[in-house]
Each structure stands twice: as structure tokens, then as C-alpha cells.
Amino acid sequence: MSARPSDDLRAAFARLGGEEDQKVWSELWDDLCHQGSVYDDSFLALPFLTAIATGRAAGEPVEAVLMAGLIVSEADEERTARYGEEIAELLSVARPLLEAAKDGVPAFVYLLQCVLAFEGERVWSATRLEGLVEGEYEVECPHCSSELFIAFGDHGTFASAGDYVTADPPKAPLLPAPPSGLDALPARLRRLALESGQEEVARGLTYLFGRAACPDCEGEFAVSEQVEERY
Hints:
Elements: H1 7-14, H2 21-32, H3 46-53, H4 61-72, H5 77-82, H6 84-100, H7 105-119, H8 131-134, E1 136-140, E2 147-153, E3 156-160, E4 171-172, E5 174-175, H9 184-195, H10 199-208, E6 211-213, E7 220-222, H11 223-230
Antiparallel strand pairs: 1-2, 2-3, 3-4, 5-6, 6-7
Helix pairs in contact: 3-4, 3-6, 4-6, 4-7, 6-7, 9-10
């Protein structure tokens, strides 16, 4: 891993603050987090992203927080300690942004993952909540290995053994977790969603942390456990 940021990385961030910011951010995402992947050198961007997020450098703070959140979600103990000061600053910016995210499920879910990443959570900060945006996850039945869709969006709430959008495959009911029965983390996530007026997200969390029945073998399983396995 590089010991310090390259001149190319410094130059890339120096281009922000002008009319081509959208293009610059697109290039930064492609270079540092291509298709959601995080690399060793991605962490070298954290000081630049922190400066943008806190207003000490030019650029869009929300964009900086989102990129930093994805990067930090992959941090091990050594990197978490090395970039501890930056992570603390990023958290202080991300929390108010999350509280202000009243409109739009995607923005809320992505910022929620960032807050979790900066707080040190390493399971649900790493893209696994993003199925809440569309109300769908694709998982494998742990009993018979069937490929299943877990749907809790506009098409209804069920587990489907096949593409439920273009076909009519076998379906089985979902068993949402009662809010009072949620563990500490999902209960907190649901509370944050409700406080921000994100009722769809709050509802989705009860299905994500609930149970499902496989329409092929009728075996029941915890949805969140299979999401962890797949994503």
C-alpha cells in the first residue's frame, strides 16, 4: 500500500470546485471505488474527503461522505485506528445529514450506512441495507439451496422461487419481525427511519430482520442471515 497519496490523487481532488465537478466525482468513484469495490489506495483519499465534508476544501460534502462511508465500511482495525481522526470528523458531518434526509429513500439508506461505517459497524454498513431501496433481496435458501427473491415492495411481500416480475413463480409468505422483538441494532435503525419520516424503510427493516419460508421446501430461515451470506 502506498505510504502517502500520489500526486495524481492530489491533482484529482484539486480539480473540484468548478463547473466539471460531476465529471470529476464520476472519475474519482471509478478510480477509488470502482463498482463498489474498495482498494488499498482508496483509504489514502480519506483526508481529502474529510476536508471536503467539513468544508475545508472545495467539493460536495454529501458526495464526500458517501464515498468515505463506503471506504470506511471496509476498514480493518489498523486502518480504523490510523484514520481515527478523519472518521470522527466524518461522523460529525454524517449524523446531521442523516437527520436532514427527510425526502428520498436512497439518500437516507446510503447515509445510514455511512453513519454505521463511521461508528465502526462492519456488517450492515457495507451495502447490505441497499435492498431496502427497492424492497428486494436475492438470497439462497439454507435448506434446499433454491435461489429466492425476498420482496417487500410495490409487488407485495413474499419469498419467490424465481423472477416474480416477469413470471408467476411459487411464492411463500414473509414473517416480519414484530418491532418489539427486534434486536438492538435493527431496533435503532427502525427508530432512526421513523424519526426521519422514512416509513417504507422502517417497514422494510421488519422484513429484513424477520423470517421467510421457502416456497420450494417450506423451510423457514432468518432473512438477515442469508443477506449476510450473499452480500
